[in-house]
Amino acid sequence: MAHAGITPYNILYTAAALLLLLWLALTVIAVNLRLYRRERENKRRFRYERMFFRNVNRSEDIVYMILRRSDKKLLYLSENAEKMWGIRAQQIETDIEALEKVTTREYRREFMRKWKEWDEEGELVQNFVSREPDGKEVWYELTAAVSEDGKAYLFRFRENTYERAEIARLREEINQAHRDVQYKTDFLSNMSHEIRTPMNGILGMLALSRMSAARMDDYCKSSEEYAAISEYLEKAESLSQFLLGLINDILDMSRIESGKLELASEPFDLFEFAEKLRTMFQKTIEEKGVIFKLEILDFDVRRVIGDELRLSQVIVNFLSNAVKFTPPGGQITVTFRQMNRMEDKVHFMIRVRDTGKGITPEFLQRVFKPFEQETATIAKSYGGSGLGMAIADNMVKLMDGQIIVDSEVGKGSDFNVYLALPVDSSQPQEIVEDRILSEKKPETEERPEKECTIEGMRFLMAEDNEINAEIAMSILEEMGACVERAENGREAVDMFESHEPGYYDTILMDIQMPVMNGWEASATIRALARKDAGVIPIYALSADAFVEDKRRSVSIGMNGHISKPIDFGELVKTVGRTL
Fold this sequence. Notes:
Elements: H1 8-58, E1 62-68, E2 74-77, H2 80-85, H3 89-94, H4 105-117, E3 124-131, E4 137-146, E5 152-159, H5 161-214, H6 218-221, H7 224-257, E6 266-269, H8 270-287, E7 291-297, E8 303-306, H9 308-325, E9 331-342, E10 345-354, H10 361-364, H11 376-382, H12 388-398, E11 402-408, E12 412-422, E13 435-436, E14 458-462, H13 466-478, E15 482-486, H14 489-498, E16 506-510, H15 518-526, E17 538-542, H16 547-556, E18 560-563, H17 568-578
Helix pairs in contact: 5-7, 5-13, 7-12, 8-9, 9-12, 14-15
């Protein structure tokens, strides 16, 4: 009989049983490990939570509260709530509205409004005040959020009374600083107006003195006394112009610091701008024995939009310094160069290069700071307030440009202005070529400018200041004009209206006048129903010299705004061009 020994099936069953036992053993081990880890994690979490709540309860200025989201049941309130508010957790558990006594009805209503609008995403923040029994106000910042599992609302009440008081104090300091800057700006603005008025009189009197001296006979003019008087008048005019420049610099710096300096945005021709610089400086530079060169390179655009006056102020400052510090035999070169053109803007550089004394590396670090000069002897030897460079730097920054200075002691300096200005698209740009404007032109090409004259013209001048009126009338009458004066804007309107059309050729209008100011008077004249009211030239003559004042004058309907002290030569040219 055959023996029933080990068969393949017995081996298979045995292996399956062993594998099952092994799987069961591994499962048990895995479950035990999971339970062990969970227990260890729970112990660690419990330890952390115990530490957290212990630290929370130690906090003197923060109260934590947890409400169940489903029924608003209190789950936790930190122990210091009783110390801060006099409310125990048991009171809130029985009546959640016990919290109402923490703050006022006004803040509760505001919180409930925010609560209803809250989408429970992120945090809800509310500041409220609590009044203690002794009447002291205590401020809290309430922050509400939903827990990560979405089952609870988490609240944090943080006292921020001191913080709010500190913020309020700092805010008041900032406001006071702004007020101080405004007071300074207003003071300087008013002082500018008040100083310009007598300066107008001083320069006018000097001009009249020169006119009187010019009428002297040849015998008097040949005397030493006449030569001395002429020298005194020339020096007095020079000092007056220096004082006026100083007033302008201080006023500009003040308005820059207060953020109230405005730039004009008007079309101008870069080539004409360069020509004005040449006309202004070439004779003076060459008389000093310095070579002068002005070049315009690589331009395919010549008309741009910007503030020509302020840009001129920057370049004139650099050129004036170059003239001061470049000795005879040296050279000053002004270069206008187009860098590139991108869409509707042209990027260009204006460089003023001199071969003068140069700037030390130490002073180069502070050259654009207000009232800075390299040494005390510089101010004595060359003059200046130390404001020009600071004003130039701020002007260029307002234009979104940059100034780069390169200098070497004993060899000279480069002042480079980089700007990007909009191209003037109001009229076609003519083809331009590189040119050097400082070269002498052949006599056959010279076209002397037609001399402007006001001889035989009749002016209506509105001026309330007796001395300024007397001076202006005397100078204009010396030039051959007839001047009729009104003492205020209302009188000027009446005088214009009482005469036939065309009686007056031009109106000169002061701005700050009693009864009716110059702007109101000009607007009234422009609105009159007569044929000359809309076309007669009206010019503002004002000690207010800000860009916004000039803009307002033009917007009112005036033809221009001439700042005091009045440059009567420029006034004649301006009126002549208009007529």
